[in-house]
Amino acid sequence: MASRGLNKLEAAGDTFRREGRRRNPLVLLGAIATAGALVVGLSAFHVGDCRLSQKMMRNRVGFQAATVALMAGSAYLQGKT
């Protein structure tokens, strides 16, 4: 009975690994690219370079869309197997 209580204390990552789910490394790259575009865009806005800021914010939206698509695709493919 004590072992059942220990299962509740598992970290979420351990639970996912235990169930055989794999993480998509491209999602991590998408998140890093999104954060990088956000930082560069905000710093360009702070300096006063509106053109670069606008370009980076548009890139950020594209990176976010690609990351969400990768997450949805990964979830779909994992559910299929």
TrEMBL record:
Organism: Sphagnum troendelagicum
Protein name as catalogued: HIG1 domain-containing protein
Transmembrane segments: 26-48
Keyword entries, A-Z: Membrane, Mitochondrion, Transmembrane, Transmembrane helix
Principal location class: mitochondrion
Domain HIG1 per the UniProt entry, residue ranges: 1-81
Database matches in Pfam families: HIG_1_N (PF04588)
Locations listed in the record: Mitochondrion membrane
